[in-house]
Design goal:
57% of the residues lie in helices and 16% in strands. α2 runs antiparallel to α5. It folds into two domains: 138 residues, no CATH class; 71 residues, Alpha-Beta Plaits (2-Layer Sandwich). The protein has 222 residues and is α+β, with helices and mostly antiparallel strands.
Amino acid sequence: MSLLTELKNAIFGGVDPSNLNTTTIAVAIIAAAVLGFYIYLVYRLVSRKAFYSKNFNISLVALAMIVAAIILTIQSSVVISLGMVGALSIVRFRTAIKDPMDLVFLFWSISVGIICGSCFFKIAIVLSVLLTIVIIGLELLPSVQAPMLLLVDAGSCSVEKEVKEIVKKYSRFHQVKSRNLTTDGMDMVIELRIKGDGEALIQEINTMEGIRSVSLLAHDGE
C-alpha cells in the first residue's frame, strides 16, 4: 500500500469502526450517565435559587450522555468529525444563562461527556470529585454581608438630616443613592450595611414626624 493510499485511508476512513465494540460504547455512555447523575445531585445540593429548574438539572445528565456519544462517533472518521462540527455550528441557543454557576455546571457536564467519550474515565471521576470539593468548600466560606437598600417616603425634605443621623447610628456604611422631590414630599434611597437585622433602624425612623413609610430591602447588586 502506497503512502498516498495510507494517508487517504487515515483521512477519509479513520479508525476501523470494528475496534469500537458495543461494550466500549455502552461503558462510555453509562459512565457519562452516572457522572451526569452525580452532577445532578451536586447541582441540587448547592442550588439556592427560589425557582429551582428541574428541567435544567435533567438536561445536565442528558447533555453528558449526548456529548459522550458524539465523541465516540467522531473518533471513527475525520470526515464525520468535520461534518459534526459543521452541523453543530448552525445551532443557535437563545436561552440566556443569567447565573454564572449554571454556566459552570454546563461546562462540567460537557467536559464529563467529552472525557467519557474518549474513555478516560479516571480523569472524569477525579475532575468531578475535586470540583465538588471546591464548589462546596467555597459555598461554606463565610461571605461578606450584602448591602441593603433603605427606602424612605417623607412628607418633606426637612427630615433628611435626621434620617441620616439615625442611619449612621445603625450602619457601618451608608450612601444616598437617590433623592426624589415632589410637591407632596420626598423619596430617598440609601444603600447601607446595617448592624444587626435592621428592625430597630426602621422602627426608629418610622416614629419620626413626617415619615409616611419606610422599607428595608436586601439586594445582591444585580
